[in-house]
Specification:
Radius of gyration: 25 Å
Number of helices: 8
Shape: elongated
Strand content: under 5%
Structural class: mainly alpha
């Protein structure tokens, strides 16, 4: 009876040593975590028009919110929540610069139902309000058009 106990303890020790060795090899963990980060980024890119929560992203990957948050922060150096907001504001900035859509429509297109909240977040992340961004873009475009009109042989 005691021999079986020793054998099974030795087997358990051998198994645990193997598991620990696998986790210690960072080269085997890195591709897995990088794959998770890639899946997170893809999910966010495909769902920028929705109100995104870390819990929803985690659910889509069948992982816990805490786990994907830690993995993302470790791999990217920024929290997942900050990344989501940043991606939404970058998308909004592109729309502000390249379309004439009303700011309220742009807010909705990046998953914000509350225009005022969107404007506050945009200013905090980008540094100017959405309206100021639109004015700066318009002024730059007007200046470019004026320059083209003044080029000999153009316009």
């Amino acid at each position: 009876k005691s021999e079986k106990a020793v054998d099974s303890l030795d087997d358990m020790k051998h198994y645990i040593d193997g598991v620990v060795a696998r986790f210690r090899r960072s080269d085997s963990a890195a591709p897995y975590t990088q794959d998770i980060v890639s899946q997170i980024e893809k999910y966010i890119s495909n769902n920028l028009d929705k109100s995104l929560y870390v819990s929803e992203v985690a659910e889509s990957l069948y992982l816990s919110a805490g786990y994907i948050s830690r993995v993302f922060k470790h791999e990217k150096g920024v929290s997942l929540k900050e990344y989501i907001v940043s991606r939404k504001m970058q998308a909004a900035q592109v729309l502000l610069k390249t379309t004439k859509l009303p700011v309220s429509v742009i807010a909705f297109r990046v998953g914000y139902d509350n225009f005022s909240h969107f404007s506050q977040v945009y200013k905090r992340v980008i540094g100017v309000s959405p309206t100021e961004e639109r004015k700066e873009t318009g002024a730059a475009e007007e200046q470019r058009q004026d320059t083209l009109r003044n080029v000999p042989g153009k316009g």
